[in-house]
TrEMBL record:
Transmembrane segments: none
Residues annotated for FAD binding in this entry: M136, Q166, K190, G191, A192, K204, T229, H230
Binding site for substrate: K98, R291, R292
Keyword ATP-binding attached: no
Co-factor note (free text): Binds 1 FAD per subunit.
GO terms under biological process: L-proline catabolic process to L-glutamate
Signal peptide: none
Pathway this chain belongs to: Amino-acid degradation; L-proline degradation into L-glutamate; L-glutamate from L-proline: step 1/2
Superkingdom of source: Bacteria
EC category: oxidoreductase
Catalytic activity from the UniProt record: L-proline + a quinone = (S)-1-pyrroline-5-carboxylate + a quinol + H(+)
Any Pfam family the entry gives: Pro_dh
Official protein name in the record: proline dehydrogenase
Amino acid sequence: MLDQIYRKAVLTVSGQKVVEDLVRSRGWGMAQRFVAGEDAASAIRAVQDLGRDGILGNLDLLGEFVASPEAANEFAGKVLHLLDEAHAAGLTPYVSVKLSSVGQGQTVEGEDLGLSNARRIVGRAREYGGFVCLDMEDHPRVDQTLAQFRLLVGEFGHAHVGTVLQSYLYRSEADRDSLDDLRPNLRIVKGAYLEPESVAMPDKADVDASYRRLVYAHMKAGNYVNVATHDESIIEDVKLFALAHGISKDAFEFQMLYGIRRDLQQDLARQGYRVRAYIPYGRDWYPYFSRRIAETPRNAVFVLRGMLKG
Ligand code: FDA
């Protein structure tokens, strides 16, 4: 319960314009703990560095809802450029995209712009043998994101596009069942947005239990699972579950955020598990940074200390 109160307080305060302006003006140095840099080249370098420890990368150009088709197309152009750059650097590109950043919800020529831009992005990733994960945003976007995911899997195959389910949403287990026919590649997360109790479980113990159920059900169904959490007890349980059910290490991977629990990422990689770090980069770091602060008071202390140092 205290976790929830803390999370809500941080997400509410960080939504205030005055707080945003203050943190934006003083915070880039601190944000760099969680953000790989401002351009694609820095993010690609971060993937290469992690690769030396046997850790894979998932590149994320930071950006959320954009209001105009021009801005959405410009953002999509940057993601395409990222795919080109990653490929040119000898990587198999793996990127995450928020559909709201490429125009989801805006209709252009009779089609949702988020979908048409996602088509361009997934198509380009497929040319390079790469992969695109459609991040999950706040709950009003879930229906459309899952419907668009379904279309994209139909067009490009499940080896090139995946999406995310959030265990805090009551609906996620039913969503997982409804996607099973696609043999979908799913990332399971707890959920990072400020959601009302009518749609999201208020109690952390319930969110954790739902998390385990989602991962186990997806593994048992024989689908690829991205176990995206820093929760060591869940990670241990998933390892045991896989062993007990004869699920091989290449049927799932652990995913964590760049700059968080690097020790655990390295340990798992050494144990022969596939590990992928989510590597955000770009200038629009504030909303991402706020959600990381909301996840643990330790990060808030880190930021306050940094601000006091001036
Ligand atoms: P939990 O919050 O229970 O924490 C478990 C342990 O990890 C605790 O000890 C905690 O202190 C530590 N920890 C967690 N977060 C930390 C942080 N920021 N800094 C330091 N320590 C931390 N969400 C979403 O809504 N849509 C999405 O698409 C994604 N995508 C995504 C990708 C990947 C690769 C990850 C790892 C996470 C996401 N998330 C997400 C975020 C996710 O929903 C969730 O908010 C965070 O992962 C934190 O929850 P944990 O599962 O780590 O557990």
